[in-house]
Design goal:
The complex is a heterodimer of chains A (359) and B (136).
Chain A lengths: L3 E6 L11 E7 L2 E8 L19 H6 L6 H16 L5 H29 L3 H22 L8 E2 L2 E2 L5 H27 L1 H7 L7 H6 L5 H5 L29 H25 L14 E10 L2 E10 L6 E5 L1 H13 L7 H8 L3 H5 L1
Antiparallel strand pairs in A: 1-2, 2-3, 4-5, 6-7, 7-8
Chain B lengths: L1 H15 L20 E4 L9 H5 L5 E5 L7 E6 L8 H5 L5 E4 L13 E6 L10 E2 L6
Antiparallel strand pairs in B: 1-4, 2-3, 3-5, 5-6
The chains are: A alpha+beta (359), B alpha+beta (136).
């Protein structure tokens, strides 16, 4: 029997954008056990809900994470709106959808870069960040912020986008689409990428289901699981098609994210075509009294925002169940039996978002 | 042919130049609505303190002087401020504004604190509004 070694992976590691630690128990080059430890960036955001006005807490929910910040504020607002029975104007719902899809794009493009960097393709990392910059410019022009948008509010959105700007966004997205196609061709055709990712970190459909995978992790294993199909915001008016692959390996997860980028562009185009005129926010009175689970599809999968109010201006409880947290058990199962050299790829194709997980 | 694809990329890169901005030679362009930093017009400010109450990161401190001299002290820590704009939104006199350029980088923690002091004029023709920058 080979000697067992424990190799620490993280919290500071070149491929990890955020701190998470794994203790990898290895026998020769194979991993026999993986022990995760999180809580390097815990900020106690859930507790803050007891100290802030429920309307102002949107700004804090926005800051749970950088890459999916808008979806957090949207999920929180949806939950509070449902508790209070607020009817959000349709234009606001469409605007939320547009910003949510742009967020998904900027997260996935960033992932394409960091994922490529993990298997040593640094030029794609540079190209991906160049493309992502165009999406961030759209954010800055429409919301005033580049990463933390801060436009969602209970009852609608803070800012409207003029129709001319919406058309300009669609035009800019055409350019982004062209650039994305160039990068995607490399992912589709490059021999070394396929060799590095195909067959690595395989999760079967059954495992993905039993271990509770969500988002691209689940869809890459053949599970048709997309919360956008629930029809929150303006998704009920758009043709949402979950991007499902059957491979179940790292390469399939890669393909799901690449295809979702193009689907997001299509959804934004559809939303711009259908967006109605009207107000973007509605005034309301009173305080939330009741509880609600809001389910929103983030770039990494399904996020649940639980909100409970007892008629006070400060909420009694706020809970976020983020997709990375749900995907960790599946990742641990995959890590066992894999080569030590494949660990960065397996972890990166999960696209872990640690600041979300630790809130 | 792959050789032509590569030469096209190389030519494109040579013609377009670098994708990054040659900062500080070419300054960064901000949009009109970029949330850069919060400024206060201390003369119109009534020191109601709503901004400090609403600030999610407790970056603003407002002190209203006694009734006899009616002084106002308003202070913001730009390094704490998350530029959410809640204070600008709630200001009843619109004396708070959001500038579209960022607060310049500083080397000391205290250098981000911006203090404003206002003493009302004793005579109406005297302009007494004055801005006191941080002591450090």
């Amino acid at each position: 029997m080979a000697k067992r070694n424990i190799i620490p992976f993280g919290p500071q590691h070149p491929v990890l954008p955020e701190p998470i630690n794994f203790e990898l128990v290895t026998e020769d080059e194979k991993i026999v056990e993986a022990l995760p430890s999180i809580s390097y960036v815990h900020r106690g955001l859930e507790r803050l809900v007891e100290k802030r006005d429920f309307k102002d807490f949107v700004q804090i929910a926005d800051r749970i994470c950088g890459l999916c910040s808008f979806q957090h504020s949207m999920g929180y607002c949806q939950a509070v709106e449902n508790v209070m029975g607020i009817e959000v104007p349709e234009r606001a719902l469409y605007l939320r959808t547009i910003w949510a899809e742009l967020s998904r794009m900027h997260s996935h493009i960033f992932w394409m870069g960091t994922g490529a960097d993990a298997f040593g393709f640094e030029s794609i990392f540079m190209q991906a960040l160049r493309i992502r910059e165009a999406v961030l410019d759209i954010f800055e022009k429409t919301t005033g912020g580049r990463v933390i948008l801060g436009v969602c509010q209970v009852g609608g959105v803070r800012r409207d986008i003029e129709d001319d700007t919406l058309k300009e966004i669609v035009k800019r997205l055409i350019t982004i689409k062209g650039n994305l196609e160039k990068i995607s061709t490399v992912f589709y055709n490059d021999y070394s990428i396929r060799h590095r990712l195909e067959g690595v970190g395989y999760i079967s459909k059954e495992d993905a289901y039993t271990l509770g995978c969500v988002g691209p992790m689940a869809r890459a294993s053949g599970l048709d699981l997309d919360m956008r199909a629930l029809g929150y915001a303006a998704y009920k008016y758009l043709d949402v098609e979950p991007m499902v692959e059957s491979g179940g390996d790292c390469y399939a997860r890669c393909l799901v994210r690449i295809r979702e980028n193009f689907h997001s562009i299509d959804l934004i185009r559809q939303a711009v075509e259908k967006i109605p005129q009207g107000p973007v926010a509605v005034k309301f009175k009173g305080f939330p009294d009741g509880e609600y689970f809001s389910r929103v599809e983030q770039p990494r999968g399904e996020v649940i925002h639980y909100v409970r109010g007892n008629g006070d201006k400060k909420l009694a409880r706020f809970r976020v169940r983020v997709p990375t947290f749900t995907n960790i058990p599946a990742m641990l199962k995959v890590l066992v039996g894999s080569d030590i050299a494949d660990v960065p790829n397996i972890i990166l194709t999960l696209d872990p978002c640690i600041s979300c997980t630790e809130r | 042919m792959k050789i032509f694809t590569m030469s096209r990329t190389v030519t494109g890169n040579l013609v377009q130049g670098p994708a990054t901005l040659m900062y500080p030679k070419r300054p960064r362009e901000f949009t009109k609505i970029t949330r850069g930093q919060v400024n206060n017009d201390i003369e119109t400010c009534i020191a109601c303190g709503l901004c400090s109450k609403r600030c999610p990161v407790y970056a603003i401190t407002v002190v209203k002087g006694p009734k006899e001299n009616r002084t106002k002290d308003w202070e913001i820590d730009h390094l704490k401020c998350c530029t959410c704009g809640l204070c600008v939104e709630i200001c009843p006199k619109q004396s708070l504004t959001m500038a579209n350029h960022y607060f310049p980088p500083v080397t000391e923690r205290t250098a981000g604190i911006h203090k404003l002091h206002y003493t009302p004029p004793e005579k109406p023709e005297q302009a007494a509004g004055q801005e006191v920058k941080n002591e450090d």
